[in-house]
Design a protein that fits this description.
Helix content: 40-55%
Distance between the termini: 76 Å
Number of helices: 9
Order of helices and strands: HEHHEEHHHHEEHH
Structural class: alpha+beta
Radius of gyration: 21 Å
Length: 191
Amino acid sequence: MEIKELEAAAEAILFTMGEAVEADRIAAAVGTDKHTMREVLRGMMQRYEAEERGIGLIELDGAFQLCTKASMYEYLVRIAHVPKKHVLTDVLLETLSIVAYKQPITRQEIEVIRGVKCDHAVNKLIEYNLVCEVGRMDAPGRPILFGTTEEFLRSFGIASLEDLPAVNPEQVEDFKHEAEEEAQQTLEIVP
């Protein structure tokens, strides 16, 4: 198959699927190897970005998806209902960041880190499709393990979890110190 044919087939697959599709699945469908398909898809990404087009191609953790360019949003709003934007409060962002950096993680582990119950926050993040169940821990009660979703990557504009900003070790120590001080103050207040 020629490059143009591979591109056309990949574009048809991605358009029809409407969600992220792994490069190896596309390669198998069009009868080529994964490496070649990945190169074709990345070439398409560059062309979509360089051309004045309303759509783009993004990579999400080894999968690819066609999407509308953010610069086209104002035109979409004029023709469609304004999509509901989810507001991420500080509590939700804090919980989401814990899941993103510590996944897979249980509710109890999140609560230990945050120091408060997290049922509502985790349920909201699941509702917003930013967090999902990724398995169960092999422990008594088989607690649910949570991780981030493709929607998380898409919403924050990152291709994979490796693209998350590195946490500064000095800041971690400062946070630990602050948390210990808060815990100590709480113990002093409680009779």
